């Protein structure tokens, strides 16, 4: 399934919720369902610090694909992290680089990507791209395969 | 109490709206207040009728603008009972007021090894400007701590003051804890050792009557946008003797007496510190918000808001897992809290979806968060237009949100 298709699926899933409260209830559900990172991975190296909440992101490369795992201390952000992981994890770096992540905006949740004083989510999106660019370059230069 | 809340709310039509299909309850007044229509009307009148650059032209428009601009200075002087109108300097906000004093005062009076005492409960804008100057000068920042209940340990000041101390910087009212600090007593202590005191009044002047002469403050700063006034205008009050001795903060037009390439002489205060074309529109409109505060009366506002504070505090305490940060007996209408098991960002986000505007996060006061070892809080702050009905809506929404995360 393409990145675009997953984004469309998510948009469709959310379309059944007309009320904001229901949309957010669903996000909270997704947040609660996302597995926590082991404590040792919630270190400063993986931390993306936002002003209001913190996000941790771990990336691993396997068979030419990047697998992401993540967590946040705020449940709503964790729900958004779960959605992002669903879209980008297990993809080739090139796919991540070439696709726009537009679904958050389409869901009307753009406020969570505000550039300052934010919840770490925008920085997480940037970090995902940085990982993809870095791994893509390593691949082209014939670098290590397991990241 | 003779407090015509309906009339007051009519000055703020913005409050009468729905957000996310819910009636708006605006409880983020410590961040910024809504602007009274009188401010908007003053801005419109200026631009429709007589806008001109001030202090520098001999024509009707400029004269009229100048007169109104200077009238606001008189209003500010009266509002805080400053000794002279020249002691009122317009800046772009409290932050610039702090930076002005930090840069200019430190330039003249601080040398390597000196100390500046800053309280632990300050907003970043009353910490960082002093730190920057301290680094420049090789001086040291000394912390005046507060207790877990949010009370400044002002008794410790006596012992923190040494022969190296050159200034004490402290907030009048904490933006997180709501604590009203005993600034008069702090100033007395500092003055007994001939040390000047800078007071950050950004969270005070809209809630309590302030008399800078009675306090004997050396410097006192605040912002119009937290006083139901326009953006981009702040005030620095400074005692004449300090302002006269301090060098200019920025160079430019307005602040000079005579300029040649060999030598420039500077204007008298306040103009020495008002380089360039100021925010004419906002300063003039600021006069209208001061008028409104004076008409309602700070004592009445204080009583109204205090009732809201007590009502909301009692309601919040009924919620299980509630921690309120800052329970000083002298407190303004600001409540910071957390609910066990729910992240402040989650609380704030869901409250927003229910029409309730609160602030979440560290409130630009990391040292306060570090004191309690927490990443952030939810903060509800009440203004002169809030009502008990709104607090009921807030408490009702909060209980609903807590259930969502249970």
From TrEMBL, chain A:
Residues 11-129 form the Fe-S metabolism associated domain. It comes from the Bacteria. Pfam families: SufE (PF02657). Belongs to the SufE family. This is Cysteine desulfuration protein SufE. It comes from Tangfeifania diversioriginum.
From TrEMBL, chain B:
GO terms for molecular function: cysteine desulfurase activity; lyase activity; pyridoxal phosphate binding. Residues 25-394 form the Aminotransferase class V domain. This is Probable cysteine desulfurase. The keyword DNA damage does not apply. Pfam families: Aminotran_5. It catalyses: (sulfur carrier)-H + L-cysteine = (sulfur carrier)-SH + L-alanine. Its cofactor is pyridoxal 5'-phosphate. The keyword Lyase applies. It comes from the Bacteria. Catalyzes the removal of elemental sulfur and selenium atoms from L-cysteine, L-cystine, L-selenocysteine, and L-selenocystine to produce L-alanine. Its EC number is 2.8.1.7. Coiled coil: none annotated. Belongs to the class-V pyridoxal-phosphate-dependent aminotransferase family. Csd subfamily. InterPro entries: Aminotrans_V_dom, Cys_dSase_SufS, Cysteine_dSase, PyrdxlP-dep_Trfase, PyrdxlP-dep_Trfase_major, PyrdxlP-dep_Trfase_small. GO terms for biological process: cysteine metabolic process. It is an enzyme of class 2 (transferase). Keywords: Lyase, Pyridoxal phosphate, Transferase.
């Amino acid at each position: 399934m393409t990145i675009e298709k997953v984004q469309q699926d998510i948009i469709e899933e959310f379309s059944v919720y007309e009320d904001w409260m229901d949309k957010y209830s669903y996000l909270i559900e997704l947040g609660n369902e996302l597995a926590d990172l082991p404590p040792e991975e919630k270190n400063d190296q993986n931390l993306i610090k936002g002003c209001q909440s913190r996000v941790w992101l771990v990336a691993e490369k396997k068979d030419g694909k990047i697998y992401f795992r993540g967590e946040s201390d705020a449940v709503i952000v964790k729900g958004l992290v779960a959605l992002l992981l669903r879209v980008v994890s297990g993809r080739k770096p090139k796919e991540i680089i070439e696709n726009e992540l537009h679904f958050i905006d389409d869901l009307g949740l753009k406020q969570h990507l505000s550039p300052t004083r934010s919840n770490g989510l925008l920085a997480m999106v940037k970090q995902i791209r940085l990982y993809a660019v870095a791994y893509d370059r390593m691949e082209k230069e014939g670098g290590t395969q397991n990241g | 109490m003779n407090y015509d809340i309906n009339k007051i709310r009519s000055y703020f039509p913005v409050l009468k709206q729905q957000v996310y299909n819910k009636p708006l309850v605006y409880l983020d007044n410590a961040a910024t207040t809504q602007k009274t229509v009188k401010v908007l009307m003053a801005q419109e009148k200026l631009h429709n009728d007589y806008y001109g650059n001030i202090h520098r032209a001999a024509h009707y428009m400029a004269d009229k603008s100048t007169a109104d601009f200077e009238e606001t200075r008189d209003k500010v002087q009266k509002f805080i009972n400053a000794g002279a109108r020249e002691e009122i300097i317009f800046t772009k906000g409290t932050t610039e007021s702090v930076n002005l004093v930090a840069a200019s005062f430190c330039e003249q009076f601080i040398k390597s090894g000196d100390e500046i005492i800053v309280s632990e409960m300050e907003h970043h804008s009353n910490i960082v400007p002093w730190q920057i100057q301290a680094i420049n000068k090789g001086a040291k920042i000394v912390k005046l701590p507060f207790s877990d209940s949010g009370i400044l340990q002002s008794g410790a000041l006596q012992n923190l003051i040494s022969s190296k101390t050159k200034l004490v910087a402290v907030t009048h009212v904490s933006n997180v804890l709501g604590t009203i600090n005993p600034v008069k007593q702090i100033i007395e202590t500092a003055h007994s050792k001939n040390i000047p005191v800078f007071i950050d009044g950004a969270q005070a002047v809209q809630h309590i009557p302030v008399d800078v002469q009675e306090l004997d403050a050396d410097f006192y700063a605040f912002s119009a946008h937290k006083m139901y006034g326009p953006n981009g205008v702040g005030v620095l009050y400074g005692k004449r003797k300090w302002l006269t001795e301090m060098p200019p903060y920025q160079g430019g037009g307005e602040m000079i007496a005579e300029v040649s390439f060999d030598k420039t002489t500077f204007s008298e205060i306040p103009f020495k510190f008002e380089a360039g074309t100021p925010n004419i529109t906002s300063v003039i409109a600021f006069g209208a918000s001061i008028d409104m505060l004076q008409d309602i009366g700070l004592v009445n506002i204080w009583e109204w808001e205090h009732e809201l504070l007590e009502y909301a505090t009692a309601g919040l305490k009924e919620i299980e897992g509630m921690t309120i940060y800052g329970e000083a007996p002298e407190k303004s209408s600001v409540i910071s809290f957390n609910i066990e098991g729910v992240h402040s960002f989650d609380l704030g986000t869901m409250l927003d979806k229910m029409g309730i505007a609160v602030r979440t996060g560290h409130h630009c006061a990391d040292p306060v968060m570090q004191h309690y070892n927490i990443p952030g809080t939810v903060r509800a702050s009440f203004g002169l237009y809030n009502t008990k009905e709104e607090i009921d809506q807030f408490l009702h929404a909060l209980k609903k949100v807590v259930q969502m995360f249970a």
